[in-house]
Structures are given as C-alpha cells and as structure tokens.
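Progress narrative, work stream C.
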Amino acid sequence: MQALHRYIKDLTVFYSQCVRASLTQTYYALLGWISFFVTVVASIVQYLGSDLPPFLQIMNSDAAVHLPLLLAGSVFGIRLLDAPYKRYRDEHQRRCELEERRKPRLSVQVTEPNGSDQCTTIVNETEGGYRFPHERLEYRNALYLTVKNNSEVRVGPCVAILTKVERKTPSGFERMNFAEGIRLPWNIDNLEGSLEQTIEAETHGRVWIASVDYNGNAWLLRDTEQLQSDQRLIFGESGTYHAKVQVSDGSSRAQSVSLELEVGPSPNQSYTEPGLATLRIT
C-alpha cells in the first residue's frame, strides 16, 4: 500500500510539472506569434472597418476573439501531450552527457621542452630542518609521455606497454625483435614498483621511456634483471628510433601512440652533462 501511495504521488508530481511546463510554453507563445496575429487582425479591422472584403468579414465578428483563444488552447493541448516525451528526452540527454563525462578518456602528449626531464639535482635535509639542492653525478635525461585523464572519474590501473621499436640504420629502419610487450614505469624513482598507475580525474601521470647518458646512449628505464634477455637491448647507441606505446586504462579501448626518439651526446662531451634527447608524437 505504501508503494502504491508513493507511485501515485510521483505520478501526480510528474504530471503537475508537465502541466506547469505546458502553461509556461503557451504563455510565451501568447506573448509571441499569437499576440502578433491578434495585433494584425485588430489593425486590419480598425483600418478597413465596414469595407472589409466578404472573405475577411469574419474578422469583424466574435470569431476574431474566439480564434486566438482556440489557437492558445490548441497550443496548450499540443504542449501537454508532448510534455511527458520532452521530459523523457531531456532526462535521457542529461544522462547521456553525464555518462559521457564519466567515461575514461586518456590523452597522451609530450609537454616538456624537447620531451625531456633534467634530473640533475638532489635535495638534502639537515638535522636542523634546512633543505638545499646540489648537483649529483648520477644525472639522468629521461624521456617521458604525459598521460592525462580527461574524464570526471578516477581511472586505472593504467598500464603503458612498449610494443614496437625500430632503429634507424644506413639502409633504413631495423626492427628490434622482442617476443612480448614491455611494461613501462610511471615513477622514475621506483621503476619496478610503478608498472601500473591510477590517475585521478582531470590530472595526469608520466610514462617513463628511456634515459640518455652523456655519450648519447639511450637505455630503457627498467631494471635489466627484471627483463627477458631479448628485451634488454631495445635501445642503444645515439641515433633515431621509432617506437609504439600502448596505453590502457583497464576498462576501455587501449590507445596506441607512435613516437620518434632522437638521442645524441652532450654538446661539451662532459660526463656531468646528460646527452641531448628529443621525443615527439608522429
């Protein structure tokens, strides 16, 4: 019985809203084209008076008043019949828009200059609580992609897999053969512990690909002991590489990105400076 009362109440509220919306739309119609029609009729009758042609004599009768009322009633009836369907369409459209905003949407881009991150300093902290940066010899010029979550929900675990690598040679590009895709890390300071990443709504994460030393040698950012033997020499000496990275959010279709990496030695050939590196999406 309580469920029946709730159903009747919801139904009453729904149709009350339909009637209110129909009256509002009819009111605006009266302010608009219906009032314009009445003004035109009244002007014609006032101007011509008794000289109206026979087929316009109706304008000089009570029909000139009844016709606008009939039109207004017709508009209200049409609006009232259409109101439940319109409310359904509007609600359906809002739900579709909300679901679309909540769908995982990842975008991959290179945002840093030359696609590189200069990791040349560390920060030390004294016992007194002071912090200061200083250079370190264990520098890295690390290439990474920025993966942004453009949706309104958290996505993950996200996984980035290196699926293809080609090295440029004098005779063309030579494909590096490895049996399975290689997972890439999301944290340069925890390579093997960050092969998956959860990305919050409207934020981004970093997929780290390779580091470059002062000689221009590029190395995959993974612990070689954790890789298969055919995966340890994916990158190497300075030059140009083509690669493909597949990024997945764990629930929707994976996104494949084609990349070009150009690596070379540092300009001063100094072991305290990282080599040059450029990363771009092709």
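Work stream C, second folded protein:
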Amino acid sequence: MKRILSILALAAAVVAAGAVWPRGLALIASDADGKTLFSHPVGIGDSFTIHFLHSAMKSPVGEIFSVTGPDEFTLRETVYQDFGFGLPHEELEGRKMAFADGKIRLSGYAVKFTDLRLRVGHIADHALLFDNGAVVVKLADYQRRGGEVRLRVGKVRGWW
C-alpha cells in the first residue's frame, strides 16, 4: 500500500510539474478581453498563413509568417491572384514579385510583430493555415464576425 501511494504521489508530481513548466511555443489567439480562443503549437522557424478573401476582388490572399522568436513572428510574403485595391502591384525596395501557377508572390518582407490584431471579416472568411495547409482554423469558429482576434506567439504550459 505504501508503494502504491508513493507511485501515485510521484505521478501527481510529474503532472503538476507539466502544468507549471513551459512545454513549448504556440500561436495563441485571444479576444479583445485577453481570453484565449485557441492555441496551436509552433516552433521557431515554423510558418503559418493568415488566409482571407479580398473584400473587393473576392479572390484568395495569403499572408505568410514565420515564428522568429519566443514572442515574435515576421511577415515574409504575400500570395494573391488578382491585383486588387490595397494589394501591391509593383516591387518595392527589397521585395521580389514572382508570377507562377496563376498567383502573384511578393516576398522579401521582414515586418516583425509581437502581436497582430484583426477583425474577423464578414466577407474575408479569415482562417489560419498551419503545416502547409494541413491544419485549417477558421476564426469565425472562435469569434463572431466583426469581433477582434489578437494573435501572438507565447509559451504554453502543461501537456499537449
């Protein structure tokens, strides 16, 4: 009996340690009040995409980010298929525009973020794509349309 209690105590200590010690990084989405809506595990060097429909052109746009630190992510490129209002139509200094597979790819960005706030669009149908699109998280599943979502990279605690 004493041995069983010791094993249970050890198991409880391991579980408690996992709940306190940081286990890794995640892209964390929260609402305007700071309540976590969801999180997805990421590592430094991982990419994710904010995917949406252009409000005027109704064509897909992807903004591709990389996790560059424990509290930071960087916009790397934008991919779209139509030149629409608000979308770049020429190369700017340090950026490269390429055309392939019916898409326009503008790369060479180095815009760093500690957080990014956006509103869930009525038309845009915002989604986050992870693992090269294998995992799709629709923001409207977690926040009402028009509601704010704050994205940040942070340490998560506990077990995955």
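Residues 65 and 75 are 4 Å apart (CA to CA). No further action is required on this item.
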